[in-house]
Amino acid sequence: MECEGGVRHKASKKRGFNNIPKPCIVTIEEGRETLFIKRGYLLLLAGVLIGFLAFSMISLLYSGGRVQYGEGEMPNLIEIEFLYTSEKQGWIEEVTPKFEEWFKVRFGIDIRVRLVVTGTHDTVNRILDGSERPTVWSPASSIWIPYLNMKWRNVTGNDYDIAVDWTPLVLSPVVLASWRSHIEKWNITGFMDLYRLAKEGVNFKYGHPDPLLSNGGAMTVILEFAEAAGKRPEDLTIEDLKNETVIEIVKTIESKAIYYGKSTGFFGAWAAENGPDAIHFFGIYENVVLDNSFKAFKKWNDSIVAVYPEKGTLMSDHPFVILNATWVNRWQRFAAGQYLFFLLKPENQELAQRHGFRPANSGVPLDQELFNPSNGVQYEIRVPILKPLRGEVMEAIFTAWVKVRNTGV
After folding, report:
1. Integer Cα distance of 171 and 293 in angstroms
2. Tens of pLDDT along 228-281?
3. With a threshold of 0.70, does the pTM exceed it?
4. Is 156 among the domain residues?
5. Residue 137: CB partners within 8 Å, gap ≥ 6?
6. pLDDT tens-digit profile of 334-390?
7. Would residue 82 count as lying in a domain?
8. Are residues 351 and 289 in the same domain?
């Protein structure tokens, strides 16, 4: 992958965000590497874009004419559509009006950002069926990027990827949530411990969102299959998902499920409201633990805590993808680039932390008062951060789900 200054970085053998080369944006190349953008690189990019716009303005002034909106002309108004997911809705709705004001002041051009919010799987379907033609797409996780590209080629017949470059906006790992008392009692470190408990005859209650309806549910089920197969998600094959031993392990875990919902937020709120006996373990995002851990402690004198699976977890990294689509023009690309720059500004990344997310901008320090064990989470993620699986394997996960789900739920 080409990085700033023409340097090609090799992936570190040691996993984790601290070992990711910093001066890069994320690019698909021979796989699914996910790298984070550095503030200096963002500033450089912004400078180039501003310089380009200034040059265009000067050219317009000397031309002496007022132009209408066009591909090669200076527009009076730029409209972009942002198709994104509900997990970050509160943050996005708070910062987007500020961006529109900032853009107008900075460039003298009106901008209108049309926000379209839905579930991750639905965003994919809307792009494929043409019901939405967004400038920018932001699923909850980059695991969906290979899947969209595969479906885009298969459904449309195009011979190119629609999602090529992306940058994470905010971060929240998938965790196995439970009550502190249950974690200490049963020594839970990952999904295979749930299989162990089930085989030992422990009658526990489990849950997670439906993977066909929720990114959090899909990521949880992927981790179940990966641990059952003894592989990382990126190494899973379609054959693994048909393996009888793997199917038996995941099906045994899922036999303890009492509910499949549409969102991870439901499980956190439900657990905090109904207590340690209502549900013992549930797959959710880290930010949901942050939202509910203290509430649970106040009511039940037992807090909800996050277990980061020791074999590794997947990061809900909320990629910002300017689509490689014919309906996106040069001015929309420019505006989308400025939108990205604005969302990654330190003050907006700090605001995202108040919504429970870790900042994707490496120059923004993590709030230790928020991210600490007293709130049910860890300041530092000490388990491997796993890479996405291939698009065709993702599709096979959805097929395998029919075989392993608890049909009584």
Report:
1. 19
2. 999 999 999 999 999 999 999 999 999 999 999 888 989 999 999 999 999 999
3. yes
4. yes
5. 83, 84, 123, 127, 148, 163, 321, 323
6. 999 999 999 999 999 999 999 999 999 999 999 999 999 999 999 999 999 999 999
7. yes
8. no
